[in-house]
Amino acid sequence: MTDVLLKTLLETKVITARYGSADTIDGALAGGAYLAFRKALGMTQDEVIEIVKAAGLRGRGGAGFPTGTKWGFIPKDVRPSYLVCNADEGEPGTFKDRELMERDPHQLIEGMAIGAYAIGSNEMYIYVRGEFAYAARVLERAVGEAYERGYLGRNILGSGFDLDVIIQRGAGAYICGEETALLESLEGRRGQPRLRPPFPATHGLYAKPTVVNNVETFACVPHIITNGPDWFKSFGTEKSPGTKIFCVSGDVVRPGNYEVPFSTTARDLIEGFGGGVKDGKKLKAFTPGGASSTPFFGPDKLDVNMDWESVMAAGSLLGTGAMIVFAEDACMVRAALRYTAFYAHESCGKCTPCREGTYWIESTLRRFEAGAGREEDLKIMLDVAGNIGGRSFCALGDFATAPVTSTVQLWRDEYTAHIKNKGCPFGR
Amino acid sequence: MSDRNGSKPAPLTADFHASARKIMGRYPPGRERSALLPLLYLAQSEHGYVSPEAMGEIAGLLGLTKAEVAAVQTFYTMYKRHPQGKWLVSICTQPSCTLAGANEIKERLERDCGISCGGTTEDGLVSLEEVECLCACDGAPVVSVNYENYEKIDAEQMASIVQTLRSGGVAPRGARGEVPEDFASVNRRMSGLEAPR
Amino acid sequence: MAAEPAKNVKLTIDGQELTVAAGTLIIRAAEHIDKYVPRFCDHPYLAPLGACRQCLVEVEGQRKPLTACTTPVAEGMVVKTQFTSEMASDAQEGVLELLLINHPLDCPMCDKGGECPLQDQALAYGPGGSRFVEPKRRFVKPVSISPLVYLDRERCVLCARCTRFANEISGDPFIELFERGALEQVAIFEDEPYESVFSGNVIQICPVGALTSETFRFKARPFDMASQRSVCNHCASGCNTIVQSRRDQIVRVLAADNAEVNEVWTCDKGRFGHAYVQRPERLTEPMIRKEGDFVAVSWAEALRVVVEEIHAARRSGKRTAVLSGGRLADEDAYALSRFARTVLGTNDIDYRMRAGTPEEDEVLARVTRGPGTTYADLEHSKAIVVVGSDPQQESPIVFLRIRKAATRHGAQVFEIGGRATPLGRGGHSLLCPPGTEAGVLLGAAGELARRGVGEWAPELRDAVAGPNASAIFEQSHATAEQIGALADALASAGADAVILAGDRLAQAPGALAAAWNLALATGARFAWLPRRSGARGAIWAGVHPVLLPGGRRISSEADRRALEQVWGVPVLAEPGRNAREILDSVGETGVLFIAGVDPAGDFGDATLGARALDATPFLVAQDLFLTESSRKANVLLPALASAERDGVITDWEGRAQAFGMAVPPAGVGRPDWEILSLIANEAGVAFPRTRDELRREMDSLLLAVEDPTPVQMPPLPMRRLDEHHPFTLLTYPLLLDAGTMLLGANELLETAQQPFIEIGRADAERLGIATGDLVRVASACGRVEAPARVSNQMADRCVFVPATQLGLRGLGLLDAGEPVTLVRVEKL
Fold first, then answer.
1. Closest CB from B96, B178, B197 relative to A93
2. Which of C318, C452, C567, C610 has the lowest tally of Cβ within 10 angstroms?
3. Are A223 and A358 part of one and the same domain?
4. CATH classification of the domain holding B68
5. Which residues of B sit within 8 Å Cβ distance of C?
6. C138: which DSSP letter?
């Protein structure tokens, strides 16, 4: 890693700043926890929302929707309203939310509390991935501490504001990371996405106004309140202000979470922070934003700046910022199969295109890996992908098509090799 | 559905009903259906799986039909339909973990235990399953035991851990420094019974 | 209730401009101009889902196609369907291709073939062939999810119409979607079959052959069947049906679409209860008892014998009487009423199978004169009060509409009675011992009067405050809270309320009057909900000892004159005997006519009916079958089922609907009205000869003058106490019982409830009874035994015994002399 990069890494610790020292509430408090909450309680709700709007904070769960705007949609005259944290991180290659919860839970609680105050909600829910046993324990402990010290409960810090939180566990369904499916699950139902409109802002949990935001999004909030919108905008780009945790994994030397400003390139992250492809191999492919929504990029895209606009201009989507790296000897057909099998398994089944289409594509790709692929299957798979994309009930369908469409587009020769070879020529 | 011997599970304890009502009471009045997922975990903590009898009880508690309860139970993969072993070993086979050797781990464990993923060993101690991303990709490959992660682990090490579990020993500390709890305790925790408030 | 004028929206579909109401979905708007966008999950009576994605259309300005079934129209919207848009036709073809990949090639053996939306839409908009070479998803098939419904999961396209119907419409979600992804499937819980009186509807709305009828399986192809539009006559809901036959055998009954009446639903009884029509046990020719046995004779001989007896009876000064069951079509009922007065010269005619009261007579006279309360009124009410009725069992489609009012439009629903019914879920159940319903109604009335809400004329005020009113109120155990909630709802609903009284409420003294008067005072609509299909027609026709056709009264000279002018015969000025009186005094009766009724089997009090018929000197029975009663007849005249003739029948709303002949009769039976016309003709009395003549006469007697006057409260008896019989009996027939019209409907009867006796939890605990324990219930008149069912929702000291289940006849317990029957309960 170059000195410049190292400097960036060290200086850009905003939401990961307290990692290592925030295991107890005292550690977190010493690091400034709950000061922003205290400050927010002294402001009006609208003031808080305006600050978050001005900072340009965008949702870190994948969609990148402006958070302040989302909070502003909540009608003030309909009660009760709810604030929900989407901690159902499940995208392959994404592991930032889990670490945020494990290593600085109070930051999340504080960010949520500020949001709850801003929208006038007295009830928060944290929907935590079922498999995150350790993170949930840490969160439960932290919530208990927060109640004890008076940052949750009745008349918080003498402000007259009451706030409670319920931690609800998921049970093994990736689709519950979709906000309306999450709400269905919270209500005790199958996690199938809902028809929109109406939107959660007016008809969310229990058909009441609800804000759903990602863990990382909430984590940014206290810092924005403390330091102000201009400070936040000093990082990153004009349309993508602030910092982001990128999750680098796969065939790299130093897999891990890296919090960087939005003005960082893929090369910086993969070769700089990540240490480049391991075992001295060459880079074949990487996902700019995780499994969801994003086709693969080849080495020609390493200099793309990792912000929403630039990645979209380059033909992909930033998503959650999960970058999985594939070395030259990784089989892209197998990668496409892995991802497609994931989507097929996680498809909720509600809509025809996703349910039947992923079944079809997965079956075909399995046939390829087993050595029985045919030339005409490539067109068929692309057609099927075309029948899913833009036609499914929710975005999972769209995302499910990306692995196969981009691998056929960029590594068609590997598919052909499978056909000629009657099997996988790579093996991994 | 019954345990492997074909016999029915023991009736739910009195504690189940008391705990169930406590969980139901966390939610706003009239919204007790939100307790359904936690109650399925509670039932799973009693029997090692979600039994039809438990689903009937839960239906009664929440004023739902049994079909409505089963519809939810069958949607989510973490609710098991057959009694699980004391230790549920979950192997992630998503891209990052596969690139790091997850398939080798899976094949080794299946061989050692004499079962395929989805099954439970004869001694009732270990169940194996393949899972989706556990979101600890920087620690690939990741294998969890009752949802406690072992990361950057290889086939040999994981085989040794499973062997320890099968011989009644204590598993080593996982990636977060904790020892896995038994399946019943883990599920009880997931019902939120021990959460604050 | 004045509706806000709907805003209209102008849009263009496939180049054609049209204007529709705001809020209309694109898919519905397209139907206005006969453009059919293919669909599976969309259904006009279910909430939009948008799951199947079949109805994708192009909307200008949108980069992706939108589902027409979830998108409402917008001003100036430009829509292009598959007819003019490649984006739409591509998308639709793609969805069909995907639906067909896992769909089995079952058409040759699938019942849906020929009437299958998947077949039709695949042919019209799908790909020409398949390029799917992977293994298809397989399931064990078919699975019987109830004795009536088969499920084939391979064929299922997961449109969720069935699960949405069960959840949204009928409120009994015993079928649900299990699993997820490609494994998603409709399923039941293993020990909880799809037991719902509405289960047949999912067969009809399933767009593929996934849900099929076990009774219709492999019987006929749609193009092999003749279809006849009809009206169900199992109850008074008035469901429009389509009776389908093949080679003159009825093979199937479907619900017909009538948005104003049954929407597109019917209950399982109406759908599956048609086997009786063509059973071999049907009476097919006239019979006369000669030397103790029935001998088949010609119509000529039968008519001659009947007329001889009538003349003999009249000459010797004996009385004649007519009993009917309330299942006759309108023409039959009118003919019977006319026959009684003009041929028999009697007012001893009654359609009821229990004792009547002057109070009931007064309410019926007003009901038959008023404009009916309609399904639409129910649906758009803000408050609905149901008293003396269990609609889910007694008038299922009314139940569905009340549910719709509550779940879709937020109506508040109150039920008053001895046991809670599914109406109470999400509504209020005011549990009161049978016989004390008047107390609850008077309590509500009193509260409203106290608040100054409503118009309380002096007689109404008196009724509310009258003697015993407060005592009866106390006996009802209604709480101030409950009365308050009821009063609140009625006060805020004003005219947008319905008070729905079941016809059996007549047994509770003062209740019908109280209900009528409450409606009058508050401006709410009053609805009378009889159980039997012909009851409304019967009271209009005057099949009643006090009433004449059109709601006229025997006691009114002007009314008698009006009829005499039409009939050409004087009408007796004295009101007649009611059913109870007729049966009690058969000694005075020379000839008794029974038409479509079984007093021996159906009159409350186990033996009164049978004894009376045995003692009747001459009994003439018009019926479809040999029943306990008709087998005692001296002359048996074969009648026809509704499927075998044309006619008109009036539903509970007062809506007359025509039905047509679907299959020819097996023998020489005639419609009831025609039999009576033939007898009249034989007797030399002028009588309409054709149905047209009859109808013209009926139409000329229509009296559309309301009678919005209060009904006098009868004296309210104090609730009897009897230490040997400490429980009050609640009994009424369940939907699927031992009725004659269910003969032959074996699979349907398998879904009937097993005999049970329902008792409240506190009472059960006191007596040491748990669910499943065998208990005995005994009254002064009879006793029954059945397993107990402990309920959390029963009135105090009240026990429910189904009236007419196979193996459990609660009817036999009724003490016909008392409005309320007391019983004792003991564990065996």
1. B96
2. C452
3. no
4. 1.10.10.1590
5. 52, 55, 65-71, 74-75
6. -
Rg (CA), chain C: 28
Query: B69 with B98, same domain?
Result: no
d(CA C324, CA C621): 10
* Chain B contact present for A188, CB below 8 A: yes
Tell me, yes or no, whether A345 and A393 share the same domain: yes
Q: Does A257 touch chain B (CB under 8 A)?
A: yes
> Token pair 């101030």 is at which residue?
C480
Of C176, C179, C180, which has the smallest distance from its Cβ to B67's Cβ? C176
What Å distances lie between residue B150 and B78, B146, C603, C787, CA to CA?
19, 11, 77, 57
In this complex, how many residue pairs, one in chain A and one in chain C, have their CB atoms less than 8 Å apart?
96
Whether residues B67 and C187 touch (CB distance < 8 A) is answered with yes
Question: To the nearest whole angstrom, how far is the Cα of B58 from the nearest Cα of chain A?
Answer: 12
Is position B114 within any domain? Answer: yes
SS (H, E, C) C572-611: CCCCCCCHHHHHHCHHHEEEEEEECCCHHHHCCCCCHHHH
Structural domain harbouring B67: 14-81+186-190
Question: By 3-state DSSP, what share of chain B in percent is helix, strand and coil, each rounded to 5?
Answer: 45, 10, 45
To the nearest 10 degrees (0 to 180), the angle between helices C86-101 and C117-125 is: 130
| ipTM of the prediction greater than 0.90, yes or no | yes
User: Helix (H, G, I), strand (E, B), or coil: what is residue B49?
Assistant: coil
User: How many angstroms away from the CA of C53 is the closest CA of chain A?
Assistant: 7
Q: Cβ contacts (< 8 Å) between B75 and chain C: which residues?
A: 178-180
Give chains near A: 3+ CB pairs under 8 A. B, C
Q: Split chain C (828 residues) into runs of 10 and give each run's mean pLDDT.
A: 69 97 97 97 97 98 96 97 97 97 97 97 95 96 97 98 98 97 96 96 98 97 96 97 97 98 98 97 97 96 97 93 94 97 96 90 91 94 98 98 97 97 93 94 93 86 78 88 96 96 94 95 96 96 95 94 94 94 90 95 82 95 96 97 97 97 97 98 96 96 85 84 90 95 97 96 96 95 95 95 93 84 94
| Closest by Cβ to C64, choosing from A352, A376, A390 | A390
Co-location of B101 and B64 in the same domain: no
Provide the domain limits for residue A156.
15-233
Global pTM?
Answer: 0.96
Q: Which of C179, C180, C188 is opposite residue B67, by nearest beta carbon?
A: C188
What is the distance between the alpha carbons of residues C244 and A418, in angstroms, rounded to a whole number?
58
**Among candidates C437, C426, C422, C419, which has minimal Cα distance to C477?**
C437
A101 and A181 housed in the same domain: yes
Residues B42 and B66 in one domain: yes
Residues A97, A178 within the same domain: yes
Helix axes A412-421, A332-346, angle to 10 degrees: 100
Strand partners, C548: C552
Distance CA C814, CA C823 (A): 9
Indicate yes or no: CB of B68 within 8 angstroms of CB of C173. Answer: yes
